[in-house]
Amino acid sequence: MKAAGMDQDMVNMFAIAAGTLAIPLLLFMASFMLWPSSLIKVYYWYWRRTLGLQVRYADCAGYRFCFSHRGKPGLRPSILMLHDFSAHKDTWLPMLKYLPKHLHLLCVDMPGHEGTTRTNTDDYSIQGQVKRIRQFVETIRLNRKPFHLVGTSMGGTVAGVYAACHPSDLCGLTLICPAGLKNQNESKFDSQMHDVEHSHYTLDIPLIPSTPEEMEEMLKLCSHVRFRVPQQILQGLVDVRIPHNDFYHEVFMEIMSENSKYALHEHLQEIITPLQVIWGKQDQVVDVSGAAVIAETLPGCRVDLLENCGHSVVMERPRQTAKLIFDFIISQQGTESVSMKKKS
């Protein structure tokens, strides 16, 4: 009788343990099915925490910038990263994983994006965004010492124009598939935009999806590597974006306006900062011929073209991109050291 009672106790204990484990699993499954957008936000929070990134805010004259950072200023220059259109600071997470932890890294939400202030009166043109990023830099006093600026796509345009306007702030510049150039060849996205423009923007803009199907098409457009994304995750990605789509449309119209569309091209000759260009050879959004345009204007720049890679370089080739940027920073510091020795 006692043995039977002990067996029953063991069964009850295992049942309780199994039930305890099943509850979070069921909650996870329910969240995945019902609230995929919430899981995506938790995912980014967990990844930031795992990589040692902290989210901070910088306030200036009623305007608030949201940014994540890791490390402190040291012997290597600080690195400020500017994300692309309709994205956010967490865009950089896949690449940050492969950068040394001692580096001082900052990823800021671009004006109006994610946690940074959004106003109806703000100027979201390229020049307007450059002014805001300078305001951020001065607010956190990042330019007390020259830093390295990295920008991708729209963020690359802003980074390039920033370098032209504020060369003393920087010791190096990395442009990843930057927009804002008069490229030699048209991309698939350029062709799609002709149709959108001819329709007077009644057609959907490919970079502003509002359904899971449109999200899937956007991912195919931006990435050469084919990622298998479950339907629920696609729905979650759309759910996160839909409340902001009107804003994204406003920004898109600003950066495609006459004053902004070729802003980088118009400022290329003014860039004196050591420059690195990284581009995916299969980029369907901004044609890779833009790399040759930059190299022709600034023959001293370093150009790295990545095989089997599209527009989403940071997502498709995070390890390689991190290594290229870090190697470039080291090489520039080595060049500066040699110059200093020659002068002395």
TrEMBL record:
Pfam families: Abhydrolase_1 (PF00561). Its EC number is 3.1.1.23. It is found in: Late endosome membrane; Lysosome membrane; Mitochondrion membrane. It catalyses: 1-dodecanoylglycerol + H2O = dodecanoate + glycerol + H(+); Hydrolyzes glycerol monoesters of long-chain fatty acids. The keyword Transmembrane applies. InterPro entries: AB_hydrolase_1 (IPR000073), AB_hydrolase_fold (IPR029058), AB_hydrolase_sf (IPR050266). One of its GO terms (molecular function) is monoacylglycerol lipase activity. GO terms for cellular component: AMPA glutamate receptor complex; late endosome membrane; lysosomal membrane; membrane; mitochondrial membrane. Residues 77-318 form the AB hydrolase-1 domain. It is a single-pass type II membrane protein. The keyword Transmembrane applies. It comes from the Eukaryota. The chain crosses the membrane at residues 12-35. One of its GO terms (biological process) is acylglycerol catabolic process. Keywords: Endosome, Hydrolase, Lipid metabolism, Lysosome, Membrane, Mitochondrion, Signal-anchor, Transmembrane, Transmembrane helix. It is an enzyme of class 3 (hydrolase). Lipase that preferentially hydrolysis medium-chain saturated monoacylglycerols including 2-arachidonoylglycerol. Through 2-arachidonoylglycerol degradation may regulate endocannabinoid signaling pathways. Also has a lysophosphatidyl lipase activity with a preference for lysophosphatidylglycerol among other lysophospholipids. Also able to degrade bis(monoacylglycero)phosphate (BMP) and constitutes the major enzyme for BMP catabolism. Belongs to the AB hydrolase superfamily. This is acylglycerol lipase. The lineage of its organism: Eukaryota, Metazoa, Chordata, Craniata, Vertebrata. The gene is abhd6b.
